[in-house]
TrEMBL record:
Domain Flavin reductase like as annotated: residue spans: 8-151
InterPro entries assigned to the protein according to its UniProt record, in alphabetical order: Flavin_Rdtase-like_dom, NADH-dep_flavin_reductase, Split_barrel_FMN-bd
Molecular-function GO terms, alphabetical: FMN binding; riboflavin reductase (NADPH) activity
Family indicated by similarity: Belongs to the non-flavoprotein flavin reductase family.
Protein source organism: Frankia nepalensis
Name this protein carries in UniProt: Flavin reductase family protein
Keyword Membrane among UniProt keywords: no
Lineage, highest ranks first: Bacteria, Bacillati, Actinomycetota, Actinomycetes, Frankiales
Top-level taxon of the source organism: Bacteria
Amino acid sequence: MSPLREIMRHVPSSVAVVTALHDGAPVGMTVGSFTSASLDPPLVSFFAGKSSATWPLIERAGRFCVNVLSAHQPQVATAFAARDADRFGGRAWTASPLGSPLLDGVLAWLDCELHALHEVGDHLAVAGLVHGASAAGDVKPLVFFRGRLAALD
Ligand SMILES: Cc1cc2nc3c(=O)[nH]c(=O)nc-3n(C[C@H](O)[C@H](O)[C@H](O)COP(=O)(O)O)c2cc1C
């Protein structure tokens, strides 16, 4: 394991699934790099690996929904990180106001328009302009910590 990866295992992160509609089909990928970036204008950010097969599809959509996962959704995080999997298979979702897939049971969602893209080493820093968002006040989050998906008590 690289020294940086070894250190970053100890830094807890939220777990979100970034979704979009690509040619009418839902696509999505799990990210642990989601964070807020700017209040005015309202921007959020995450990092997409340059080798990601899903990111180019989301980029083409030009908009995406960040689905922040709740404690009872570790299997959703795993499914949306798996290669060659039917990530949406049997999963309930509705269209967000901007038309991106909004997964059932999430802790929070943010409906975004692609705002900026910057190369950062082997990743792309993605900034999304937030058009709408909502959060469930009584739900616990899913966190990624020391290589494990866990509920935050
Ligand atoms: C907890 C967790 C966090 C992840 N965080 C990121 C991330 O921030 N950025 C990223 O590009 N991939 C991240 N991944 C990997 C992607 O979910 C996915 O496996 C990878 O993009 C390969 O799929 P793709 O080619 O369809 O994109 C994460 C996976 C897990 C399980």
